[in-house]
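Design a sequence for this backbone.
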């Protein structure tokens, strides 16, 4: 089998000795043989991993016990400051975790790694529910923040681990806590399109209209990432449909920019403002006209909009469509304009003349 240059470089970077390879591979016989020949038990590889950490990382409990009985250093850390507990929690090895916490001494439950994460953070981030439950039972801190000011709740929501998220919420941790970018767990779940996490957070009573530092709501994030089912959840929870971010962009603008027809339809049906403009003074129709997106333009026109609104260049949506040579959109806007004028002229006090009349293309 051919060995790539990348693999050769990786092996060289590892700089592992025989005992480290044996511990990582889980070879009890090889480990005992090497230890009998006085192989150094605490040697580090290129990543700062010694045999003890490698055994923990790969889930080899019997190897770990052999190394501990030989006198391996229990307070060891790799180059990312991951210690024994971090490795076990990140990888989800519950049997090793139980051994570490119950049989070893001086284990620092809330020790942080280089990124400021505890074992609790890492278990949440990687979705290890059983590990999370065990750490909670051992009395770990639930609300510590890493260097990005994420709590374990943030990390579980970001990765879509709904079962872990539920367990953390049961500890009473604040669900509206913000990280360094002003994102709550709801924002992170929305950004990832994690339906079940969003549902759990809404049911727990999180602030659905909380804004990030750039004034984006969860609706902005699901609209940008094309998550239709999540839009419905947020709308039903009473989120502000017309909230604008620091660029004066609404969720509708983002849905149109992404050509997300289904989300545009959901927002229109929910009653969003179709005439809201962004920092270029463009409405949703301006954007649809600019890109020639007929389906979206049709939905907006049928719902009724102000066709006289001008963008920063003094252009109407008709001008924008014509400039882009989007002939079909031009025709639709012209027809809609005629219909709006006819509708206005034929409105009577009882509106009988408009019964059964609607704009179609």
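Sequence:
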């Amino acid at each position: 089998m051919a060995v790539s240059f990348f693999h050769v470089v990786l092996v060289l970077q590892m700089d592992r000795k025989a005992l480290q390879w044996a511990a990582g591979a889980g070879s009890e016989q090889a480990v005992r043989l090497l230890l009998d020949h006085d192989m150094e038990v605490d040697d580090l590889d290129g990543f700062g991993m010694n045999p003890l950490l490698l055994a923990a990382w790969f889930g080899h409990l019997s190897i770990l016990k052999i190394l501990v009985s030989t006198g391996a250093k229990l307070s060891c850390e790799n180059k990312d400051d991951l210690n024994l507990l971090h490795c076990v929690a990140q990888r989800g090895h519950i049997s090793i975790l139980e051994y570490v916490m119950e049989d070893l001494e001086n284990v620092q439950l809330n020790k942080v790694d280089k990124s400021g994460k505890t074992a609790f953070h890492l278990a949440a981030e990687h979705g290890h529910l059983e590990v999370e439950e065990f750490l909670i039972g051992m009395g770990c801190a639930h609300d510590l923040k890493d260097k990005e000011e994420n709590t374990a709740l943030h990390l579980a929501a970001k990765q879509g681990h709904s079962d872990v998220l539920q367990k953390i919420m049961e500890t009473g941790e604040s669900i509206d806590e913000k990280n360094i970018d002003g994102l709550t767990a709801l924002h992170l779940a929305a950004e990832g399109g994690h339906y079940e996490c969003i549902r759990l957070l809404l049911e727990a009573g999180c602030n659905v209209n909380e804004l990030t530092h750039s004034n984006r709501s969860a609706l902005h994030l699901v609209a940008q990432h094309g998550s239709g089912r999540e839009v419905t959840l947020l709308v039903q929870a009473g989120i502000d449909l017309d909230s604008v971010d620091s660029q004066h962009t609404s969720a509708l603008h983002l849905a149109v920019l992404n050509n997300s027809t289904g989300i545009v339809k959901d927002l229109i049906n929910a009653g969003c403002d179709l005439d809201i403009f962004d920092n270029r003074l463009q409405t949703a129709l301006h954007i649809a006209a600019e890109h020639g997106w007929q389906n979206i333009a049709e939905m907006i026109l049928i719902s009724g909009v102000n066709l006289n609104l001008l963008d920063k260049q003094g252009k109407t949506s008709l001008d924008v469509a014509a400039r882009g040579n989007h002939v079909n959109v031009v025709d639709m806007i012209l027809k809609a304009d005629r219909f709006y004028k006819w509708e206005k002229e034929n409105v009577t006090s009882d509106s009988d003349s408009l019964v059964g009349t609607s704009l179609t293309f």
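The first helix runs from residue 5 to 14.
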